[in-house]
Amino acid sequence: MDLKAGKVFWKDTFKEHRTYPILEEDLSCDVCIVGSGSSGAHCAYFLAGTGLNVILIDKRDISEGSTVANTGLLQYSNDKTLTSLIHSFGEDVGTRHVQLCLDAIRTLEKEVVPSLDGNPDFKIRKSLYYASSLEDVSMLREEYDNLKSRDFPVEYYAEKDIESKFSFSKLAALVTGNDAEINPYKHAHFLIEKAYQKGVRVYSNTKINGKILKENQTHLFTENGHMIRAQSVIFATGYEAQEEVRDKNAKILSSYAIATNQIADQAKWHEDMMIWETARPYLYARKTFDNRIIIGGLDESTKYLEKRDSMIIRKRDELLKQLIILFPELENRIQADYYWGAFFGETHDGLPTIGIYPDHPNCYFLLGYGGNGTVYSVILSQIIRDLITKGGHPDSALYLKERNFSKSIVH
Questions:
Q1: How distant, in Å, are the alpha carbons of 182, 327, 371 from that of 264?
Q2: How far apart are CA 244 and CA 240, in angstroms?
């Protein structure tokens, strides 16, 4: 699957990364991770300290799939609001999911990023979530009440507050705290390098083109004729997993983004907050470490590559237009130095998924689908680690594809 097209931004920010060889021998391991994007990288990082014999492989260069098209907004608030989660799943499950998202960002801030050999441009930010229409104001107020009453870091901005801090005016907005921005490409490379230093064997440009699935061991066969024997396999292949297992809860869309030229004095943009909106599909925007602006969205309900790619130039121009509507002072000063389209996964129920299937014994499919994919990777990789090493995890029932919430342990 061609996951992306166009001129992506992140590769140009980190060219001096470690490279890894092609697998050219038969190997055995306790755990084989297939995929080196955000999900596979977090799995490698969290498994590296367990004493297990771990291998990570990817058919591409490291982190060259969807992760290089990720725009790097980390938020505890989700595409599906806490209010909606509570309506769908009940208060305990909805609140626990949002808490786990907040905890994941704090884990990155306090534990993961400080342990890496370089900073992946990680920075704690606030997010502005504004009402796209009058009809959404009451929804935002209810969401604020639900978040605030459960001690999540949130503020409510009225129209005058927004006008005083930004170039645009909106009727209302929520400001969520302890969100973050990151360079997802750097981050995945740094995670894998740290795992490699701890003994995880890493191979790039190694395609799996066959497998034998047994109850006690999986045999993976590479395109160049070698075999990996693994006790457990984690398929961290993102949206390409749908070619292997068709999850009825998953849907594949196309999304678009641009990164502008560098502008030192950009706009009236309070505290460089990340910005998104209540409309669906939604627009979102953030600044970068080198004074660019990334804006994305304009999703299309297509999983066809030709249709996705045919719209990249039109979406580029529309995203520039939307950015100027928000920040009129940027007109005649900005251009899209980078622009791309990419496949993007969502779930119908709004939660990410760990897929375990009877015809894939000892295999785990990490499906971190949704606009919070990096945050989901942090959560799900730790749960899968514990499923492998301990036989269970107190939050696994929230994310196993069966959604058996009655077994959830609420903390």
A1: 20, 15, 28
A2: 7
Tell me the mean pLDDT in the region 270-292. Answer: 96
Round to whole Å and give the CA distance between 3 and 391. Answer: 33
Residue 407 pLDDT greater than 80, yes or no:
no
Between CA 408 and CA 396 the distance in angstroms is 7
Question: How many other CB atoms are there within 10 angstroms of residue 375's CB atom?
Answer: 28
CB 137 within 8 A of CB 144: no
The per-type count for the chain, helices as H runs and strands as E runs, is: 11, 18
217-225 LR contacts (CB < 8 Å, sep 24+)? 217/362, 218/32, 218/361, 218/362, 218/363, 220/32, 220/34, 222/23, 222/57, 223/59, 224/22, 224/23, 224/24
Q: Which residue has the tokens 């000892």?
A: 362
Question: The tokens of 30 are what?
Answer: 């306790």
Rounded to an integer, what distance in angstroms lies between the CA atom of residue 389 and that of residue 391? 6
**Tokens representing 299?**
């999703």
Rounded to whole angstroms, the Cα distance separating 136 from 172 reads 9
